[in-house]
User: What shape does this take?
Amino acid sequence: MDANKFVTDGNNITDLSSGNIQLLFHYATENFYTKKRVVISDLPYQTNRMNLRFPSIIQLYYVENIDNELEFYQEFFPNGDLKNFTKNNCIVTEDIARFFYQCARGLQYLHKNGYIHRDISPRNIFIDINRNASLGDLEYSTNNPDASSRIISKYSAPEIKEVPNTKKSDIYSIGATFGKYILKYLEDDDLKNEFLNIVSQTKAEEPDNRISADELVGQIEDLLKKNGMQSIIDEFECRIEPCQNNYTFCRLDDIKGIRDNQFIQEIVSKALD
Assistant: This one.
């Protein structure tokens, strides 16, 4: 990996999702993190997100209030978002099956903890160095079922034009997102048709007729087992306990250990090797 792709005199990362995002190098642990500045308030809610610890949910390590904006210190995903990853890499059936399953598990975790993501799309799914997927961009998620604001994209459920986002609109969005990749990358066979059948259940016109996150995970698991991909399930299960007991990568115990805007190329290159 070329360090120069991510580091240019300490300026913003240009090939991750839009926004004021910087790559940070933690000298004490020799690990990378990202710092993202967002013009939103509600510090207590955002701080609570640090308690979300699950393999397919982006790990938030710290939140700081700076001039009425919030800065989020979180995981760094060297493979970027799903849109760019699929554009720049060779993609096989197992990749799409794994990404769909991992994101469904992440959504199931969010819903069980009372959260609505509200903005699932290829730009908000991130791929780590081991080709594992995580749901990200949770700054605009909510755990308030009465929240009236709406987030609209081409992956949004049709009802969002008139009513707030709900868990059922999340289900529509994850189906719309992965339906696109299933159609593009899977061969025309029974597996593809069965995946598309699951997607169709996420995109029912009436929200109440859409499957739940629990049902989505169950159906994908059945399909993986049926088609010799049990290892995708097993590998994910092995990552859950370590993630819940510790931070996903390494603990960010010393926030002062992050030296913003001091990107020494030799150190960066060493850490990227």
